[in-house]
Amino acid sequence: MTKLSPSILSADFSRLGEDCRRVLDAGADMIHFDVMDGHFVDNISFGLPVLESLKKVLPQAVYDVHLMITHPLRYCTDFAKAGADLITFHVETVDDIQATIDAIHAAGCQAGLSVKPDTPAEAVFPWLDQLALVLVMGVEPGHGGQAFQTSALDKLRALRAECGRRGLNPYLSVDGGVKADTTAPQCVAAGANLLVAGSAVFCAQDVPQAVARFRSL
User: Fold this and answer.
1) 194, 172 in Cβ contact below 8 A?
2) Set 19, 29, 34, 95: catalytic member
3) How far apart (Å, rounded) are the C-alpha atoms in residues 49 and 33?
4) Is 175 a catalytic residue?
5) pLDDT of 146 strictly over 90
6) DSSP states along 89-139
7) Which of helix, strand or coil describes residue 30?
C-alpha cells in the first residue's frame, strides 16, 4: 500500500494541531514539514518552534521534515531535537552531503535526499545505501501552483531500478503537483511508495476519503 505524507503548508495554521490530528486519524502515515529559508528557495515557511509545538500536542506522529535550506548541516541536529523523525535535505545545497547525512544519523533520525526538477536521479546514487528516503520534486521547490513535471516519473523509474539492483527499499517519495486522480497513479506506477500532498488532503471536504484514495494506489 502506498503511504501518504500530507504537507502542512496547506493546513489551517489557526488550528494546526487539530488539522494534523484530523489527517492522522484519517489514516495518513506521517506529517510532511516543509522548511524554507528564503535563500535556497524564494519563500519562507516555518521552523523549529512550530515543530516543537506539534510534537507536544501530537507526540505519536511521524514527522517527515524537508529542509529546503542552504545550510542543512547547521540546523539538522536542532530539528532532530525538536521532534523530526526523518530529515530530508537537497543534494543541491552547499553543505557537505556525507557530513550532513552523518549528523542526521548521529542525532537519531533517518536521512533523506531530495532532487530538484533539473537534477538527475543519479546525483543521489553515491549515498543511496545510507538513505531511508529519496524525494523527487515534481515542481520547482518553493513555488506553488506549478504544473507537475513528468521528468519526475523518469527519475522515479531510475531510482526504483537502482534500488532493485542493490537490494534496497527506501521510501521513494514525490512532492509537488501530486493529485490522486491523475499524477499520483503515474508516480506509483513509476516506483513511488510515499506521496506528499497538501491541499488535496487538508482542504478536502471528506478527509478520510481523500486519504484513502491516495493510500489505495
Assistant:
1) yes
2) 34
3) 12
4) yes
5) no
6) EETTSSS-HHHHHHHHHHTT-EEEEEE-TTS-GGGGGGGGGG-SEEEEESS
7) coil
Query: 92: which residues sit within 8 A by CB, 6+ positions away?
Result: 40, 115, 116, 119
Residue 144 above 70 pLDDT? no
In the residue annotation, 37 being an active-site residue is answered as no
pLDDT band at 1 (very low <50, low <70, confident <90, very high): confident
User: For residue range 171-199, what is the model confidence (pLDDT) as tens digits?
Assistant: 999 999 999 999 999 999 999 999 999 99
Q: Is 39 helix (H, G, I), strand (E, B) or coil?
A: coil
Contact in structure between 11 and 203 (CB atoms under 8 Å): no
CATH class for domain 3-215? Answer: alpha beta
Starting at the edge strand found earlier in the chain, the sheet holding 63-68 runs 3-6, 194-197, 171-175, 133-137, 110-115, 86-90, 63-68, 31-36
- Identify the active-site residue in 37, 64, 95, 175: 175
62 close to 87: Cβ distance less than 8 angstroms: no
pLDDT reading at 19 higher than 90: yes
156 phi and psi angles, rounded to 5 deg: -60, -40
